[in-house]
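lol forgot to send this yesterday, sorry. struct tokens for the thing we talked abt
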């Protein structure tokens, strides 16, 4: 029996959210619909999810001591990571002490680091991946490239959103790729993964939700990445039935191994009927923002439902849809979006402005969503809407 009480009372169901970006913001809103009390954490004040949460704390997310202090004070029913770079060792301890980490502390630890999840998928589960080698020094790096061959993709093992990632297409780029990986990663340099370049036809995120009734798959999400960062996604990605079946089998295997409840974004490369596993996030996925317009229950609503131990008997799909990230370039603490009214004139169009307090360099600040008769038409619609928007810094 699942019981949900009253916020700010002894019966409250409490969630501590580790990471307060745009994905956490939508997830918080979904939890609020159930009257869950949400406490949002991030390294800077006024982060998007903090703007809708009941309370928030600012702390370096890799600081296990501060994280533990907050958890012991708040005593949440669930600890839900929204980002990768968290003090995972502390989450492992807290889980042992009886706290409920979503989906599991093991899943969060393994996926924080590209090495953990790659070895689990390729070496333990026998799932097809790109060829790969790990390298901790420049010597090892050069040897790894010799073995893997060119072209290859280099990524810090502790990184996401394309930070420190590069593709080597000719030998002259080797030294530069090492430098980029050393400066672009989360942990300030260190080990990298060298992956054989996969010449895929297309790539997908197979959103997979583990809930009280079992495992459900969402329609596959196709997407385009620029410099390792997502710019556009659409749903459903058309797939040959054999490839879709293989993709679901891989997603089932990987998510079963990680365990727990919640949504997972399983990233796969598709070439013909071949499906190659890339990585998995045990949380909502940025490319999955398209589900805010394509489904009655978005990935955030599904995550909330799964986390709370509620069943998901069906996922109603509304039709072909697309999302387009609005990446703002420049330096400002007062970004303003103009012509929002013009951008929303076409039917079945939506926009989310994340309310991020600052941009310095480039930052995803909003997303445009559209539904249409085909994914191509939906993508064209998000482009038209985006072109109407003006951005002032
Ligand atoms: P990741 O951070 O690992 O998700 O990588 C970001 C993006 O880079 C992916 O979504 C792909 O578009 C591209 N990419 C990553 N690894 C490879 C690879 N081994 N071969 C080709 N493209 C890749």
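and heres what i got for the seq, position by position
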């Amino acid at each position: 029996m699942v019981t949900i009480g009253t916020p700010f009372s002894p019966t409250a169901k409490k969630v501590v959210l580790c990471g307060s970006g745009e994905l956490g913001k939508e997830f918080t809103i979904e939890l609020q619909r159930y009257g869950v009390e949400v406490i949002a954490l991030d390294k800077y004040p006024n982060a998007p999810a903090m703007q809708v949460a009941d309370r928030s704390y600012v702390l370096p997310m890799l600081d296990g001591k501060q994280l533990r202090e907050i958890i012991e004070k708040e005593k949440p029913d669930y600890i839900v990571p929204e980002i990768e770079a968290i003090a995972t060792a502390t989450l492992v301890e807290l889980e042992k002490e009886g706290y409920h980490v979503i989906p599991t502390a093991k899943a969060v630890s393994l996926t924080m680091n590209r090495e953990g999840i790659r070895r689990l998928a390729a070496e333990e589960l026998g799932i097809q991946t790109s060829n790969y080698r790990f390298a901790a020094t420049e010597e090892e790096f050069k040897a790894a490239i010799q073995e893997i061959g060119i072209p290859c993709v280099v990524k810090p093992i502790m990184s996401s959103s394309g930070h420190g990632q590069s593709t080597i297409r000719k030998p002259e780029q080797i030294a530069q790729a090492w430098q980029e990986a050393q400066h672009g990663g989360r942990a300030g340099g260190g080990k990298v993964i060298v992956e054989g370049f996969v010449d895929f036809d297309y790539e997908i995120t197979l959103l997979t939700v583990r809930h009280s009734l079992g495992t459900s798959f969402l329609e596959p999400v196709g997407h385009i990445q620029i410099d390792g960062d997502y710019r556009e996604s659409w749903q459903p990605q058309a797939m040959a039935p054999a490839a879709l079946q293989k993709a679901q089998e891989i997603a089932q295997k990987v998510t079963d191994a990680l365990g727990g409840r919640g949504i997972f974004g399983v990233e796969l490369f598709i070439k013909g009927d071949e499906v190659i596993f890339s990585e998995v996030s045990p949380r909502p996925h940025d490319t999955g923002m398209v589900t805010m317009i394509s489904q009655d229950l978005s990935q955030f609503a599904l995550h909330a439902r799964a986390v709370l131990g509620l069943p998901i008997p069906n996922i109603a799909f509304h039709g072909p849809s697309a999302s387009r990230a609005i990446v703002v370039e420049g330096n400002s603490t007062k970004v303003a979006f103009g012509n929002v009214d013009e951008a929303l004139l076409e039917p079945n169009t939506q926009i989310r402005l994340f309310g991020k307090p600052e941009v310095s360099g480039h930052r995803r600040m909003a997303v445009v969503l559209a539904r249409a008769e085909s994914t191509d038409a939906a993508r064209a619609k998000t482009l038209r809407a985006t072109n109407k928007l003006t951005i002032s810094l």
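The longest strand covers residues 359-371. anyway ping me if u want another try
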